[in-house]
Q: What sequence folds into this?
């Protein structure tokens, strides 16, 4: 059976790292490249975090550094939830990672590699952070859109229950213009995993503890990087489990049958307003005359998500 081929664009914080582990440790997946973007943390830390994950997994994948901030304005990282380094402060006392970043800019690498991958057949571009790199690629080369077989995005708040403002999810909040450009660009096969789905399908703390107790090097890494986030979610926010938006999006990308429910609908992003800037608007009743442009995922298979994470922590042990 041929492997699923992925290019992953990420702002690697804690849940991005888990998503990378799911993809990189799956026997049915080939990761062609990883591109980075400022989001959860500054892009310097993002690049280091990706390289540390590759070191831990002992995987060799090309990494390309991308946008240092949004199309407009300054980069605003996610404050405190994932530690100073975006990875639970695990990397602060470590030497430089063994894996290194390529000299080619991520946007140029994306333009080049999607053409190469398209010649080989269908592949999936997975966007786990702000969509800045993708928006820049769209603007630089119109053929980029046609070369992407399938695009899976973690972003948006489908019920306007935001995690950054009352109505807006972080990735779209971090670069609303980029999100608007990407969703209006005309990609043929777009799947969006919104924030609220990851909340409904959070990893219960009991299941979380079972993963931490697997006694592999990968499960030890999993436990270390999630420690700060878990403490804050439990004590400060009273969460019953850990939402895993990026692993949930990765599940949609790599696991057949993982999507239990979705709707193919018109989706666009607001770029103005005091509370609405970055809001993902879903035209459920198709009232504004737009054609459907995205599959919005509303339910996933929680057991399949847990199984995929568990398998990644056991791979090679």
A:
């Amino acid at each position: 059976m041929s492997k699923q081929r992925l290019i992953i664009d990420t702002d690697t914080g804690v849940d991005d790292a888990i998503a990378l582990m799911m993809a990189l440790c799956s026997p049915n997946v080939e990761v062609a490249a990883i591109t980075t973007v400022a989001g959860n943390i500054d892009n310097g830390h993002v690049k280091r975090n990706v390289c540390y994950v590759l070191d831990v997994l002992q995987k060799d994948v090309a990494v390309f550094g991308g946008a240092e901030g949004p199309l407009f304005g300054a980069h605003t990282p996610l404050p405190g939830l994932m530690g100073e380094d975006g990875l639970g402060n695990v990397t602060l006392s470590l030497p430089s990672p063994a894996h290194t970043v390529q000299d080619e800019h991520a946007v140029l690498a994306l333009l080049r590699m999607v053409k190469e991958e398209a010649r080989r057949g269908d592949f999936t571009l997975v966007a786990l952070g702000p969509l800045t790199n993708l928006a820049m690629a769209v603007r630089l080369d119109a053929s980029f859109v046609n070369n992407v077989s399938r695009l899976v995005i973690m972003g948006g708040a489908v019920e306007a229950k935001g995690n950054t403002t009352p109505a807006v999810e972080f990735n779209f909040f971090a670069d609303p213009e980029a999100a608007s450009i990407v969703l209006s660009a005309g990609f043929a096969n777009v799947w969006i995993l919104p924030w609220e789905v990851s909340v409904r399908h959070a990893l219960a703390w009991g299941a979380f503890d079972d993963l931490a107790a697997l006694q592999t090097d990968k499960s030890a890494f999993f436990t270390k990087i999630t420690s700060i986030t878990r403490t804050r979610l439990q004590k400060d926010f009273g969460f019953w489990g850990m939402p895993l938006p990026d692993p949930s999006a990765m599940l949609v990308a790599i696991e057949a049958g993982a999507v239990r429910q979705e709707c193919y609908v018109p989706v666009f992003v607001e770029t103005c307003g005091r509370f609405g800037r970055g809001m993902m608007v879903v035209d459920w009743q198709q009232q504004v005359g737009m054609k459907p442009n995205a599959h919005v995922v509303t339910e996933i298979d929680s057991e399949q998500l847990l199984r995929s994470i568990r398998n990644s922590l056991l791979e090679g042990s």
Remarks:
- The mean pLDDT is 95.
